[in-house]
Amino acid sequence: MIEWLLDLLLALALVSTAAAALLSRDLFRAVVVFIAFGLLMAVCWVRLQAPDLALAEAAIGAGLTGVLLLDAVSHFRRGNSHGLESQAEEEN
Question: How many domains does the chain have?
Fold first, then answer.
């Protein structure tokens, strides 16, 4: 009974984090929620007795991809503040 409850809570958490990541207007928050989604997915793979997939999901899905997306968001924010104006001036 407790195992079913844990599985149900994991499924609800996965759906809610996926929806939050998709519907978030703030890019940083969306990436952080995406990382949380990857970690929850890793827990789901452990529950399905697939530890190799859980490690890959945690390392690649939450770790590496999350860091790359956070770096992209920081470059995007810096580009919007002053990089786009200089690019427009160079084109003219």
Answer: 1
Q: Read off the pTM.
A: 0.79
**Token match 């809570």: residue?**
9
A 10 A CB-CB count for 18 gives 15
Q: Which residues of the chain have pLDDT under 70?
A: 80-92
Take residue 60 and report the two structure tokens written for it: 């690649």
70-92 residues labelled b (16+ CB within 10 A) or e (exposed): beebeeeeeeeeeeeeeeeeeee
Q: Say which DSSP state 48 is in.
A: T
Residue 91 in domain: no
13: containing domain: 2-82
